[in-house]
Amino acid sequence: MDKLQELTQKLYEEGLSKGKAEGEAILEKAKAEAAEIIKKAREEAEAIKAKAEKDATDHRTKVEGDVKMAAVQAIQATRGEIENLIVAKAVDAPLKQALADQDFIKEIIAAVARNFSAQESCDIALVLPESLKKELEPFLKDELGKIVGKGVDASFSKKIAGGFRICPKDGSYFISFTDEAWKELIGEYLRPGTKKLLFG
Questions:
Q1: How confident is the model at residue 60, as a pLDDT?
Q2: Checking DSSP bridges between strand 163-168 and strand 175-178, what pairing results, if any?
């Protein structure tokens, strides 16, 4: 009986020892796996955090760049508008006054028509402002043809505020001496000086 009890005790202790060893091995393995999972989770969290920080930095840099570019463009546009206003102010009134002077207009038309007719073998056509029809029609009918030595076909248009357009009678091309063309031409000469004066 004692031997049976001793054998049972021995088997129990061996099983207990073996179970304890296996349990400890399983526990160690679980701890190692848990540590690996935690390590990977931390690495993934760090990678996600680093990516989020990089994305945020890239986005901030892009937004700052866009804001700076918009500011530069706004400043340039504003400078351009200021420059245009000053040039327009400097050109508009004197030009309107000059183009409203009948004698001045007649002189310009005669000079341009003379040079134009020297280059062209055909008759010439003029388009002038409707507002000057009454004042200029007698000059165009009676005098200009004699001055240039060719036929002159003159018409008047409400689309032209000042100045005139000249072309061969066939209308294959035209040269513009309208108020808008004068403004653009004079403005181009004034702009560099105006820009330097305003903005250095």
A1: 86
A2: antiparallel
The token duo for 36 is 């690996």
DSSP-derived 3-state class of residue 162: coil
Q: Which pLDDT score is estimated for 122?
A: 72
Q: Are 144 and 113 in contact (CB under 8 A)?
A: yes
How crowded is the C-beta side of 34, counted as CA atoms within 13 Å?
6
Structure tokens at 53: 């920080």
Instruction: Give long-range contacts, CB 8 A cutoff, 24+ apart: 138-143.
Output: 139/106, 140/109
Q: Where are the beta strands (DSSP E) in the chain?
A: 124-129, 152-157, 163-168, 175-178
Mean pLDDT by 10 residues, the chain (200 residues): 68 69 77 83 84 86 83 71 65 70 82 76 82 85 80 85 81 77 72 64
Indicate the pairing of strand 124-129 with strand 163-168: antiparallel
Rounded Cα–Cα distance for residues 106 and 140 (Å): 9
Close Cβ partners of 123 (under 8 Å, ≥ 6 residues apart): 150, 151, 152, 153, 168, 169
Fold held by 101-199: hypothetical protein PF0899 fold (3.30.2320)
Q: Can you give the pTM of this predicted structure?
A: 0.47
